[in-house]
Amino acid sequence: MDKIELKDKKILYELDRNSRQTLSRIGKNVRLPKSVVAYRMKKLEETGIIKNFYTVINFYKLGYINLAIYVNYQYYTPAIEKEIINYFVDSKYSWWVANIQGRYDLVVLFLVKDLNDFFSFWRKTLMKYKFNFQDCSIAFFTKTYSYPHSFLLDDYKRDNREKMEIVDGGKKVDIDNKDLQILHLIDLNSRIPLTEIAKKLNSSATMINYRIKKLIKIGVIQGFRTNIDFSKFDLQQ
Fold first, then answer.
1. Final residue of a domain: which of 140, 165, 181?
2. For the chain, N or C: smaller number of CB within 10 Å?
3. Is 7 helix (H, G, I), strand (E, B) or coil?
């Protein structure tokens, strides 16, 4: 594909720092008119460089445990591999599934509230695919750091590099059903307007804005990021 211009990279960096920023704020930060930012963002979405905008949620605060399963295959065909992947994708516990190259062939991330339920599911999984799993490992996440993609720029300063920190074992917070509905709406669409959220939830934009700020203050919302297709940059993850 054509080389991605520096102006677009700067816009992507700003969106990855905070995807709920206004067009005016992004324009000010990258020194471009609001209309130009809007045009370039639209092109970035149309070409698939921007996949979507999402919200970083600290599920530990909601009582969830984050864990991963690493799997090595044996005695499998492409059809069996596809079946295994679909099996995990369809699981109510999984939120991320990836084929990888290296020590393991497959990584699946899970969010669970009850470990007994999860291990019951895992025992059934091992029974189902015991001939196709050579070995497996389970890891529990206790702390996660999330950095903006500074490699989009050539002149970033390491000392200014921000991070979002998600720590397991912290105090669980109580939120109501309205907050959960808001999280559901902004989870994979962090740029959804307040007015649209308000309309869907029969509320006011002022109240929705208040609740989002509260969720940020109590640590449930850690930030707003952008899902970028780095294959468009000839990069691999």
1. 140
2. C
3. helix
CA angle (61, 210, 203) in 5-degree steps? 105
User: Which tokens hold the place of 99?
Assistant: 């084929």
Residue pair 187/19 in contact (Cβ under 8 Å)? The answer is no
pTM: 0.85
Q: Is residue 93 part of a domain?
A: yes
* Mean pLDDT, each 10-residue run in order, the chain (237 residues): 81 94 96 97 95 94 93 96 97 94 94 94 96 95 79 64 66 94 97 97 98 96 92 71
The whole-angstrom distance between residue 188's C-alpha and the CA centroid of its chain comes to 8
In contact, 37 and 11? CB cutoff 8 Å: yes
* pLDDT score, position 220: 94
User: Domain of 222: which CATH number?
Assistant: 1.10.10.2890
Instruction: Provide the domain limits for residue 128.
Output: 64-140
Whichever domain contains 79, its CATH number is 3.30.70.920
Amino acid at position 229, single letter: D
Gyration radius (Cα) of the chain, Å: 20
Spatial separation of the C-alpha atoms in residues 94 and 112, rounded to whole Å? 9
Residue type, 59: F
Q: Is residue 1 part of a domain?
A: no
Q: How many domains is the chain partitioned into structurally?
A: 2
Q: Which of 71, 53, 165 is nearest to 110 (CA)?
A: 71
CB count within 10 Å of CB 202 equals 7
